[in-house]
Amino acid sequence: MFEKRSIGLALVLPAALFVALGFLLPVGLLLAESFRTPAGWSLAYFTTFFADPLNQAVFLRTLRLGLTVTAVCLVVGYAAALAITGLGPAARGRFVGVLILPLMISPVARTYAWVVILGRTGLLNVLVLKLGLSDEPLRILFTETAVFLGLVQLFFPLAVLPLLSALENLPADVVPAARVLGASWLRVFWQIILPLTREGLVVGGTLVFVGSLTAYITPAMLGGSKVLMLETLLYQRVSVANDFVSAGVISVILIVMSIATNVLLRRLAAGRRAGGAHA
């Protein structure tokens, strides 16, 4: 037993060292610099950052869009995952292939497609003008709506795939048994399916929210300078203003928001499971 454990530790050690040197150490140094001021360790940089109205607006916009994109992806993703799970093996494979296909395409190309669709001379405005719904092209590009659509399209597969995996591992007899006992579809979903697929919810929600927070290409192309988010603000502070202190503060904020989201989703999932078991 001791020999097997030693072999396992020896095999894990290279990967652990790589993660420690390539990720944990740089992140730790970044976190340290964000709290270390000439007067000592303090939160002065964070206080200065949030005292700026522009930074407050960018933070709230990023949080609002991240939460909205995550909620929409999870709600629609649950419906899509349930529908795909109910299909036969051949049809299920085709739908999963279609779902995975966008992940094989560069985010730049996927985002540029929205520029073609939402621009003043794009497909959407051409359709609106031909139908007589407006006398002039709609201004959709470089708005929060455009960024929202781009982020939903970008991260929707990351919400569906964990939910699909969790639903496929759901015991086959629990839903029919609940229906035979008189439970409605809403009660079956709320008290059986949702608690038993909580891990898919946590993984999918974390991937979508963190991706929405840290995506740069989509907000930069669809939002431009008119719809700043934390990641585009981070790029501006580094490449334009050469302000590495603010960039470090933004990085810490993004890391904290990502970890807090995962913890919150796990707590909600655990509470949902306990409530379902109690019921």
Concise overview:
The protein has 279 residues and is mostly helical. The protein has helices spanning 2-35, 44-51, 53-85, 89-100, 107-118, 123-130, 144-168, 174-180, 185-196, 198-214, 217-222, 230-239, 244-278, and strands spanning 36-37, 40-41. It has 13 helices and 2 strands, in the order H-E-E-H-H-H-H-H-H-H-H-H-H-H-H.
Molecular structure report:
With 279 residues, this protein is mainly alpha-helical. It has a single domain (44-278), classed as MetI-like (MetI-like fold, Orthogonal Bundle), CATH 1.10.3720.10. Helices cover 78% and strands 1% of the residues. The protein has 13 helices and 2 strands, in the order αββαααααααααααα. The chain has helices at 2-35, 44-51, 53-85, 89-100, 107-118, 123-130, 144-168, 174-180, 185-196, 198-214, 217-222, 230-239, 244-278, and strands spanning 36-37, 40-41. The chain has a two-stranded antiparallel ribbon with strand order 1-2. Strand 1 (36-37) and strand 2 form a beta hairpin. Helix 8 (174-180) runs antiparallel to helix 9. It starts with a helix and ends with a helix.
The outline comes out as globular
Proportion of strand residues? under 5%
H/E series: HEEHHHHHHHHHHHH
Low-confidence stretches: none
| Second rung of CATH, namely the architecture | Orthogonal Bundle
How many beta strands in the DSSP annotation?
Answer: 2
Strand pairing plus helix content: what structural class?
A: mainly alpha
Q: How would you name the oligomeric state of the polypeptide chains in this document?
A: single chain
The CATH superfamily is identified as MetI-like
Instruction: Summarize the amount of helix as a percent range.
Output: over 70%
Distance between the termini: 42 Å
CATH topology: MetI-like fold
- Nearest-angstrom radius of gyration? 23 Å
Q: Kindly state the mean pLDDT as a whole number?
A: 85
Q: Largest beta sheet: what is the strand line-up?
A: 1-2
Domain module count: 1
